[in-house]
Design a protein that fits this description.
Layout (H helix, E strand, L loop, with lengths): L2 E4 L2 E4 L6 H7 L23 E8 L5 E4 L4 E2 L10 E3 L3 H15 L16 H9 L15 E3 L4 E4 L8 H8 L6 E4 L6 E4 L12 H5 L5 E3 L12 E6 L8 E7 L2 E7 L12 H4 L15 E4 L2 E4 L2 H14 L3 E6 L5 H14 L4 E4 L9 E2 L5 E2 L7 H9 L5 E2 L1 H9 L5 E7 L9 H7 L3 E6 L11 E4 L8 E4 L5 E4 L12 H13 L8 H8 L1 H4 L2 E2 L16
Parallel strand pairs: 1-6, 17-18, 17-22, 18-21, 22-23, 23-24, 26-27
Antiparallel strand pairs: 1-2, 3-4, 3-5, 3-6, 7-8, 8-11, 9-10, 12-13, 13-14, 15-16, 15-24, 19-20, 25-26
Helix pairs in contact: 2-3, 7-12, 8-9, 8-12, 10-11
Amino acid sequence: MPTVTINGTECEFEGKKMILQVAQENNIELPHYCYHPGLSIVASCRICLAEVEAPNPRDDNKLSFIPKLMPTCQTPVADGMRVYTTTPKATANQKQVMENLLINHPLDCPVCDQAGECKLQDYSFQIGRGESRFEEDKIKQPVKDIGPHVKLYSDRCIMCTRCVRFTREITETSELAVFGRGSSEQIDVFPGIPLDNDLSANVVDLCPVGALLDKDFLFTQRVWFLSKTPSIDGLTASGDNLSIEHNKGKVYRFKPRENKDINGWWITDEVRYGWKFIHSEERLAQPTRQQIGGSIKTDWDRAYQDIQQGITQADGKLALMVSPMLSSEEAHLLGTWAKSIDPDAILAVGPIPVEGEDRTFANGYTICAEKCPNSRGVRRALENLGSEVLDADALTALLADKKSGIASIALTGNYPQAWISKELSKAVGKRFSVLIDTLPNSLTPKATIVLPSASWAEKAGSFENHRGQVQAFDAAVPVQEGARPEGQIALDLLAVSTGEPRSIFDVATVRSQMGDDFNATVVEPVREVVESELQFVEL
């Protein structure tokens, strides 16, 4: 296999790749601004220039230095090549680039949201000068509101043009462009055309400095206080990989995680900002039960006993509707509980919201019209219990039939929006009903028992996306006080039904019960191990 030596480290490579790409594949840090693996290569920032020894075909392929510094982002690797970015010549270029970039850059680090994850800040510390030689007045640029989610601080822009290339090459909407020349050059939108496409906030992730900032996250939290938890899009069927960034039990923002097979480096604005219901003040926080024509608060043990008693005393079948917002593991446990009470229980998948049609962008990234994360996984988990699985409409029609023999029903929700149709609400009627949900809806005051549940950010599990890819995710924040995950609720109900001791909901344990066929399909997330740079001195 061909090899290239980068700063003394020998790296193997395959195919046609650039030096910087090989370096990144081997965890070798080379300074760069304008390069991004999801965009075209323009080699404009010039900080990645390196000294290169390459085989010379005019001299029997002997190694010889290329006279000028070469951009590592745009120079193809060759077998036997040697690359140096730490030599005096390469380092002098890096220092010069940094000095030029900082000439008009304001000292905004103390108030900039990008502080702590800013490449300009990092490289200034590593290879910048300790003082500025610039004695003229800095050029001032305005702060602009360029779209519903993005604010532009033009003073901080280093003209890497990542954002411009994104709107041209990925969304193909071209809202952003480069205006002016020389020292007055700046990024801006065209008059009357805001940055308002479905992927607009990805330019915030692309910006290596603090020029493009998320208005939703602006001045809310310092990034070094945030913890990152790997998760999956819990709002649509795309299966996009994302990181939930949180602190002290509160979610502050979603960021995309790289997965070239699914979402690449992007997520939609719909997913990025659709998590607010997790901390909604309307969240259900205590079980309730019907008494004398109204709902009253109750405790969990009393609710469990009432559910067991109500279902067993009901003269007829039990129906279970499992929401496609739940994980496959939770669907398995809920189905197991229903079967423990009524072996002939009717199982169904809850309503599957669909908005419009799938939309695919130039690079293959797809926005799913299906607005639930796990309809396929829930159906598969229920089918593995050996029963026919109905859809929501079929179950609603069956409930409306007085000859169906259904005497009790359990429903799970967890949707971020209203999901109970008039037909379903009417079909549930005066049956003994159990509702497990996160937010109140039209059925909440009517259900016999209501149990508050947890959002996907508060628990672990797995989702199966629209392509049939099964991906695991971790719990990011603690479950809201008073609520419980659906998996734990199912285990508690199962313990009451069978008389066995209660157990704690554990995803690995549940998967072991679901069989090897399911476990073989689950892809675990890559969990980052962040090592602190703080040094402790033993006293």
